[in-house]
Design a protein that fits this description.
Number of strands: 0
Number of domains: 2
Mean pLDDT: 97
Order of helices and strands: HHHHHHHHHHHH
Radius of gyration: 18 Å
Oligomer: single chain
Low-confidence stretches: none
CATH superfamily of the largest domain: Hypothetical protein, domain 2
Bound molecules: iron/sulfur cluster
Length: about 210
Protein backbone atom coordinates (compact mmCIF):
# COMPACT_ATOMS: atom_id res chain seq x y z
CA UNK A 1 0.00 0.00 0.00
CA UNK A 2 1.39 3.41 -0.87
CA UNK A 3 1.18 6.48 1.36
CA UNK A 4 -1.62 8.02 -0.68
CA UNK A 5 -3.80 4.97 -0.12
CA UNK A 6 -2.88 4.84 3.57
CA UNK A 7 -3.69 8.51 3.93
CA UNK A 8 -7.09 8.04 2.29
CA UNK A 9 -7.96 5.15 4.62
CA UNK A 10 -6.98 7.24 7.64
CA UNK A 11 -8.86 10.28 6.37
CA UNK A 12 -12.01 8.21 5.85
CA UNK A 13 -11.69 6.73 9.34
CA UNK A 14 -11.31 10.19 10.88
CA UNK A 15 -14.24 11.57 8.90
CA UNK A 16 -16.42 8.65 9.94
CA UNK A 17 -15.66 8.93 13.64
CA UNK A 18 -14.81 12.58 14.33
CA UNK A 19 -16.94 14.29 11.71
CA UNK A 20 -17.69 17.28 13.92
CA UNK A 21 -14.28 17.81 15.48
CA UNK A 22 -13.46 21.49 15.88
CA UNK A 23 -10.88 23.79 17.34
CA UNK A 24 -10.86 23.26 21.10
CA UNK A 25 -9.66 26.79 21.82
CA UNK A 26 -12.46 29.26 22.55
CA UNK A 27 -12.43 32.39 20.39
CA UNK A 28 -14.79 34.89 18.83
CA UNK A 29 -12.55 36.63 16.30
CA UNK A 30 -9.13 36.33 14.60
CA UNK A 31 -7.37 38.38 17.28
CA UNK A 32 -8.63 36.08 20.02
CA UNK A 33 -7.61 32.96 18.10
CA UNK A 34 -4.08 34.13 17.42
CA UNK A 35 -3.62 35.06 21.10
CA UNK A 36 -5.10 31.76 22.31
CA UNK A 37 -3.00 29.71 19.90
CA UNK A 38 0.17 31.54 20.88
CA UNK A 39 -0.62 30.80 24.54
CA UNK A 40 -1.25 27.11 23.83
CA UNK A 41 2.42 26.24 23.23
CA UNK A 42 3.32 23.64 25.85
CA UNK A 43 0.01 24.26 27.59
CA UNK A 44 -3.34 22.47 27.38
CA UNK A 45 -6.20 24.06 25.46
CA UNK A 46 -8.31 23.66 28.61
CA UNK A 47 -5.91 25.84 30.59
CA UNK A 48 -5.76 28.40 27.77
CA UNK A 49 -9.57 28.57 27.78
CA UNK A 50 -9.45 29.37 31.50
CA UNK A 51 -6.98 32.20 30.92
CA UNK A 52 -8.30 33.91 27.80
CA UNK A 53 -11.61 35.30 29.17
CA UNK A 54 -9.60 37.46 31.59
CA UNK A 55 -7.09 38.39 28.90
CA UNK A 56 -9.74 39.44 26.40
CA UNK A 57 -11.76 41.30 29.03
CA UNK A 58 -8.69 43.38 29.86
CA UNK A 59 -7.46 43.65 26.25
CA UNK A 60 -10.32 43.21 23.78
CA UNK A 61 -8.30 43.97 20.66
CA UNK A 62 -4.80 44.46 19.29
CA UNK A 63 -4.85 48.18 20.08
CA UNK A 64 -5.52 47.55 23.76
CA UNK A 65 -2.95 44.75 24.02
CA UNK A 66 -0.33 46.82 22.19
CA UNK A 67 -0.57 49.42 24.95
CA UNK A 68 -0.63 46.93 27.82
CA UNK A 69 2.07 46.90 30.45
CA UNK A 70 4.10 43.72 30.70
CA UNK A 71 3.44 42.99 34.39
CA UNK A 72 -0.33 43.09 33.95
CA UNK A 73 -0.28 40.70 30.97
CA UNK A 74 2.21 38.40 32.70
CA UNK A 75 -0.05 38.18 35.75
CA UNK A 76 -2.99 37.10 33.60
CA UNK A 77 -1.11 34.48 31.55
CA UNK A 78 1.05 33.17 34.40
CA UNK A 79 -0.56 29.73 34.54
CA UNK A 80 0.09 29.11 30.81
CA UNK A 81 3.74 28.26 31.45
CA UNK A 82 6.63 30.12 29.80
CA UNK A 83 4.54 33.10 30.80
CA UNK A 84 7.29 35.70 30.69
CA UNK A 85 8.08 34.96 27.05
CA UNK A 86 4.40 34.59 26.18
CA UNK A 87 3.46 37.92 27.79
CA UNK A 88 6.31 39.70 26.03
CA UNK A 89 5.44 38.12 22.67
CA UNK A 90 1.72 38.88 23.00
CA UNK A 91 2.43 42.58 23.47
CA UNK A 92 4.99 42.62 20.63
CA UNK A 93 2.61 40.75 18.36
CA UNK A 94 -0.20 43.21 19.12
CA UNK A 95 2.11 46.16 18.41
CA UNK A 96 3.03 44.64 15.03
CA UNK A 97 -0.65 44.00 14.24
CA UNK A 98 -1.38 47.67 14.91
CA UNK A 99 1.69 49.07 13.14
CA UNK A 100 1.67 46.81 10.07
CA UNK A 101 -1.89 45.55 9.69
CA UNK A 102 -4.21 48.20 11.09
CA UNK A 103 -4.96 46.02 14.11
CA UNK A 104 -6.17 43.10 11.96
CA UNK A 105 -4.76 39.57 11.72
CA UNK A 106 -3.06 39.01 8.34
CA UNK A 107 -3.88 36.16 5.98
CA UNK A 108 -0.52 34.95 4.67
CA UNK A 109 2.05 32.58 6.15
CA UNK A 110 4.80 35.13 5.56
CA UNK A 111 3.05 37.95 7.42
CA UNK A 112 1.85 35.71 10.22
CA UNK A 113 5.24 34.14 10.94
CA UNK A 114 6.81 37.61 11.01
CA UNK A 115 4.81 38.27 14.21
CA UNK A 116 6.45 37.68 17.60
CA UNK A 117 5.74 34.23 18.98
CA UNK A 118 3.97 33.03 15.82
CA UNK A 119 5.48 29.93 14.22
CA UNK A 120 4.17 27.84 11.35
CA UNK A 121 1.84 25.89 13.63
CA UNK A 122 0.06 29.00 14.91
CA UNK A 123 0.06 30.48 11.41
CA UNK A 124 -1.59 27.38 9.97
CA UNK A 125 -4.22 27.45 12.73
CA UNK A 126 -5.09 31.00 11.64
CA UNK A 127 -4.92 30.27 7.91
CA UNK A 128 -7.21 27.25 8.22
CA UNK A 129 -9.72 28.32 10.86
CA UNK A 130 -10.03 32.00 9.98
CA UNK A 131 -9.13 32.34 6.32
CA UNK A 132 -10.03 28.84 5.08
CA UNK A 133 -6.66 28.44 3.39
CA UNK A 134 -4.64 25.21 3.07
CA UNK A 135 -1.99 24.39 5.65
CA UNK A 136 -1.50 21.38 7.90
CA UNK A 137 -1.12 22.13 11.61
CA UNK A 138 1.67 19.90 12.94
CA UNK A 139 1.26 19.66 16.68
CA UNK A 140 2.42 16.91 19.01
CA UNK A 141 -0.56 14.66 18.12
CA UNK A 142 -0.18 15.03 14.35
CA UNK A 143 3.56 14.45 14.59
CA UNK A 144 3.16 11.29 16.69
CA UNK A 145 0.26 9.79 14.74
CA UNK A 146 1.60 10.44 11.25
CA UNK A 147 4.88 8.76 12.22
CA UNK A 148 3.21 5.80 13.92
CA UNK A 149 0.94 5.16 10.97
CA UNK A 150 3.80 5.43 8.50
CA UNK A 151 2.53 8.49 6.65
CA UNK A 152 5.85 10.20 7.41
CA UNK A 153 9.16 9.25 8.94
CA UNK A 154 10.51 12.42 10.46
CA UNK A 155 10.78 14.50 13.63
CA UNK A 156 10.98 17.73 11.65
CA UNK A 157 7.61 19.57 11.83
CA UNK A 158 8.25 21.47 8.59
CA UNK A 159 9.08 18.27 6.70
CA UNK A 160 6.00 16.56 8.18
CA UNK A 161 3.85 19.53 7.18
CA UNK A 162 5.16 19.44 3.60
CA UNK A 163 4.66 15.68 3.26
CA UNK A 164 1.15 15.68 4.74
CA UNK A 165 0.18 18.56 2.46
CA UNK A 166 0.97 16.27 -0.47
CA UNK A 167 -1.25 13.51 0.91
CA UNK A 168 -4.34 15.47 2.01
CA UNK A 169 -6.50 17.71 -0.17
CA UNK A 170 -5.94 21.36 0.68
CA UNK A 171 -9.60 22.00 1.39
CA UNK A 172 -9.48 19.28 4.07
CA UNK A 173 -6.28 20.34 5.85
CA UNK A 174 -8.03 22.22 8.64
CA UNK A 175 -10.73 19.68 9.49
CA UNK A 176 -8.24 16.82 9.09
CA UNK A 177 -6.10 18.47 11.77
CA UNK A 178 -8.99 18.83 14.21
CA UNK A 179 -10.04 15.23 13.63
CA UNK A 180 -6.50 13.89 13.94
CA UNK A 181 -6.00 15.75 17.23
CA UNK A 182 -9.28 14.32 18.57
CA UNK A 183 -8.14 10.84 17.52
CA UNK A 184 -4.83 11.46 19.29
CA UNK A 185 -6.53 12.51 22.51
CA UNK A 186 -8.96 9.58 22.53
CA UNK A 187 -7.29 6.61 20.82
CA UNK A 188 -3.71 7.10 19.63
CA UNK A 189 -2.55 8.59 22.91
CA UNK A 190 1.12 9.33 23.55
CA UNK A 191 1.33 6.71 26.29
CA UNK A 192 -0.40 3.36 25.84
CA UNK A 193 -2.27 3.96 22.58
CA UNK A 194 -5.55 2.03 22.43
CA UNK A 195 -4.49 0.01 19.40
CA UNK A 196 -6.90 -2.86 19.98
CA UNK A 197 -9.91 -0.59 19.40
CA UNK A 198 -8.26 1.52 16.70
CA UNK A 199 -9.96 1.41 13.31
CA UNK A 200 -6.72 1.75 11.34
CA UNK A 201 -4.61 -0.80 13.19
CA UNK A 202 -4.58 -3.11 10.17
CA UNK A 203 -2.67 -0.51 8.16
CA UNK A 204 -0.57 0.96 10.99
CA UNK A 205 3.22 0.59 10.87
CA UNK A 206 3.54 0.90 14.66
CA UNK A 207 0.88 -1.77 15.30
CA UNK A 208 2.56 -4.13 12.84
CA UNK A 209 5.78 -3.78 14.81
CA UNK A 210 4.26 -4.79 18.17
S1 LIG B 1 -2.96 1.13 15.76
FE1 LIG B 1 -2.25 2.13 17.63
S2 LIG B 1 -0.43 3.30 17.05
FE2 LIG B 1 -1.53 2.77 15.17
S3 LIG B 1 -2.81 4.55 14.74
FE3 LIG B 1 -4.05 3.08 15.89
S4 LIG B 1 -3.82 3.67 18.05
FE4 LIG B 1 -2.18 4.68 16.89
Amino acid sequence: MDKQQLSQIFENYLAGNWAHARCSLNYENPFQLICATALSAQCTDKRVNEITPNLFRAYPDAFALANADYDSVAAIVKSAGLYQTKAKNLISMAKALVERHGGEVPDTMEELTALAGVGRKTANVILGNIWHRPGVVVDTHVKRISNRLGLVNSDDPVKIERELEQLIDGENHCIWGHRCISFGREICTAKSPKCTICGVKDVCKYYASL
